[in-house]
Design a protein that fits this description.
Structural class: mainly alpha
Oligomer: single chain
Number of helices: 8
Strand content: under 5%
Number of domains: 1
CATH topology: Glycerol uptake facilitator protein
Order of helices and strands: HHHHHHHH
Largest sheet: none
């Protein structure tokens, strides 16, 4: 699941129509709200799906998957024009590594995403009458799970880099479609997002992950994102050494905060 990760992820515009890009405070707020809503979708749909599935885990996962894929697409389309809709720390760092998001903005983005994830967990729990935070007991340990997270995040960043450089208008749809598929073809159910992973460790529900297992997931996500970024630098050698953007164009100057 993303964080399904996913993530997370991205905007497709080649050119901004406004004369100045949103300030860092506005972009950070968009990242916070987008990540909060993403986590609320993931956890809330997991709770609802499990409660209505009558013990059928496959049905509960299907409900969780469809809600997450649809919610992710809507959030990318909503917040993409403001912040790029990264909603995912590894997407932000990958973007910065290719000359997109300025490195000075990365800490603010990441803090906003992490805080947004926890806020989304709290909202989901409160909506369903549960404690604001309660540590998950859902075991997601072992090499197979870590490989699943590596593959999930590698695939997510591959989709972002591949579509963002050739067919940017398709990126939101491709990201949502990939995360929907990755729920089912990865044994980890594709968290692919450190902010979502940490947030789900505070939820002892269908979508949760035991806190002891979260660091391994985050490490696998970082390695997967780095591997995909390096691979696409090699696959597309004509790309400039420093990308003006990765997933979200930042052609206009930043307005003063």
């Amino acid at each position: 699941m993303p964080g399904a990760a996913a993530g997370l992820a991205v905007v497709w515009y080649k050119h901004r129509v406004n004369t100045s890009a949103p300030s860092l405070s506005r972009r950070a707020t968009a990242e916070l709200l987008g990540t909060a809503l993403l986590v609320a979708v993931v956890i809330g749909s997991g709770i609802m799906g499990e409660s209505l599935a009558g013990g059928n885990v496959a049905v509960a996962l299907l409900a969780n998957t469809l809600a997450t894929g649809a919610g992710l697409l809507a959030l990318i389309l909503t917040y993409g024009p403001i912040s790029g809709a990264h909603l995912n720390p590894v997407v932000t760092v990958a973007d910065a590594s290719q000359g997109g998001t300025p490195w000075r903005d990365v800490p603010t983005y990441v803090v906003a995403q992490m805080a947004g994830g926890l806020l989304g967990t709290a909202f989901a729990h409160l909506m369903f009458g549960k404690p604001i935070f309660f540590a998950s007991h859902h075991v997601r340990a072992g090499g197979a799970q870590l490989l699943g997270e590596f593959v999930a995040t590698f695939g997510l960043l591959s989709v972002i880099w591949g579509t963002g450089r050739s067919r940017p208008a398709t990126t939101p749809y491709a990201v949502a479609a990939y995360i929907t598929a990755a729920y089912w073809f990865t044994c980890s159910t594709s968290f692919a997002n450190p902010a979502v992973t940490v947030a789900r460790a505070a939820s002892d529900t269908f979508a949760g992950i035991r806190p002891a297992d979260a660091p391994g997931f985050v490490a696998a996500q970082i390695v997967g994102a780095a591997a995909a970024t390096l691979l696409f630098r090699w696959l597309v050698p004509q790309t400039p050494a420093v990308q003006p953007y990765a997933v979200a164009p930042q052609s206009a100057p930043q307005e003063k905060q």
